[in-house]
Amino acid sequence: MIGDGLDPLGTPQDLDPFGTPRPRGPEGVPRGGTGGKVSPRDRGVPGGRPPGPTLSPAPGAAPLSRMIAAQASLEVRTLLRNGEQLLLTLVIPLLLLAAFSLEPLVNFGAGLSRVDFLTPGIIALAVMSTAFTSQAIATGFERRYGVLKRLGATPLSRAGLIAAKTATVIAVELLQGVLILLVALVIGWRPDASPAAIVVAPLLILLGTAAFSGLALLMAGTLRAEATLAAANLVYILLLGLGGVVFPLTKFPAAARPVLELLPTGALSTGLRDVLQHGAAFPAGNTITLGVWAVAAITFAARTFRWD
Amino acid sequence: MSAAPHIPANPAAPAVEIGGLVKRYGQLTAVDGLTLTAARSAVTGILGPNGAGKTTTIEICEGYRRPDQGTVRVLGLDPVRDARALRPRVGVMLQSGGIPPSVPAADYLNLLSRFHTHPVPVAQLLALVGLTAVNRTPYKRLSGGQQQRLSLAAAVIGRPELVFLDEPTAGMDPQARHATWELITQLRTAGVGIILTTHFMEEAERLCDYVAIIDHGELVAGGTPAQLTGTAGQLRFRAEAGLDLDSLLAALPPATAAKESPAGHYVIEVLGHVDPLLLAAVTAWCAQRDVLATSLSIESRTLEDVFLDLTGRDLRP
Q1: What is the 3-state secondary structure (H, E, C) of chain B?
Q2: Is the ipTM of this complex over 0.85?
């Protein structure tokens, strides 16, 4: 044989029970039967039919950590392969950061350069896009397609599934964080932070993630998937405008400002801006706001979530 | 997180034991006092028209729904209370869906294989269900039959003791259906218990060690396919249309039924088997009237006949 060793016609013994030719490895060995460890019982008689797999009962649940890692790894790969999700979580935040930093599209007020004003807001937007919008849409459709129901019949517990979703969100946020910080630094971002920011900024992001995740699951666990899709995108656009991401909250009427700062996006962007650009040690008000959102949203989500 | 609670194994417990099960949805009683036992290492078929309560029963066994009344034990355990102990031991194939649409077949099986301690190797399983060539194809782009086969593979990858298959061959072409029957037979030989629902009587007749026919949420008949079909024998023949059936019946042993359907096609039915005396009585009666019976055949009823007799011929909503 020449080339890659594939024999398109195959010989009868290369047909599996469904009549489709088995792809063969370079040595003409069926690929199916040689992957992984082969126990003695799986080995066939030389010259006989290729051995089938052992199906005899040998049940057992894998360790929880392995199940969570497997689930999270599949979810991350699924998100990174999904164009719309990438648009929300990476393309839009990075484009806004670059466009609003390089062109004077908005007057941010005195005191901060454009990129210095934008970077904390874009981080808040990134957290919202992943923990809220992306997670709500993905979970809503998983529920609609019976994926959550089917997972309920596997050894992965509900707590394990929620841990995997949390790990997925944090992994995507880390990727977003690296890219946003790189782009911001290239554009000329100069943070003005106290040493406490090393702890406080991640704390704010973590609380924001918890609050947005709770809201995402509250929505995905009660509404139809299509309604979740529409509502999650609408909230994303609204809070992009009203959450202190690219338009300073100081531009809004004085009466509206405290209300906007009580929304999770406003609390996160304002808190991060205080810590990263104004050298604040600990924005207590914003931290409490995010904490209350997190506890309330997760409590309601846990009470109302329907798995199928 | 703590380890799964230790629950003593009870190898003597049947695969499934259902006693007096009742499940209502609002006004509708989906399952109405069902009692049923399924043995281990056997294939048990649950048959019934649409809306008979098959899927509700299976989903209660899978722990998805709680019974309103009655008891359900799976491998001797409570499907809801002992869910953690049961999940690794029980494989599930839902009637449809359950697999993320954009995930390739092999990726989904790889995920599930990492949930178990001794999974069937993914490459071997893909070959067994005939999906090797499409292993990188996302679920949503597989054909209906391929989706069913992936779902079946997902049910058995963890080497369970018991699998629940809800209409496993729906949407398959004849080749895939035969190969799936072969796989179910292999599972049974390997010692796996199988509970399946189906609309295909041929499937039940071929595969099942025990068949339960349910309707309106109740068991209407149960037994081996041979027991169910062997309870009535049939003698069929053709002759001129319009023979006097009352006169024929008068010449035959009691507890015999006769009908003409369609015209010129006669069916005589008895409990048990058609015996030589009955055959002689029918042909003697014909001879007296100078009637030539052709295409005469002696048959037992098919499972489909039994099914339709028990559940009626009306279309279900």
Answers
A1: CCCCCCCCCCCCCCCEEEEEEEEEECCEEEEEEEEEEECCCCEEEEECCCCCCHHHHHHHHCCCCCCCEEEEEECCECCCCCHHHHHHHEEEECCCCCCCCCCEHHHHHHHHHCCECCCCCHHHHHHHCCCHHHCCCEHHHCCHHHHHHHHHHHHHCCCCCEEEEECCCCCCCHHHHHHHHHHHHHHHHCCCEEEEEECCHHHHHHHCCEEEEEECCEEEEEECHHHHHHCEEEEEEECCCCCCHHHHHHCCCCCEEEEECCCCEEEEEEECCCCHHHHHHHHHHHHHCCCCCEEEEEEECCHHHHHHHHHCCCCCC
A2: no
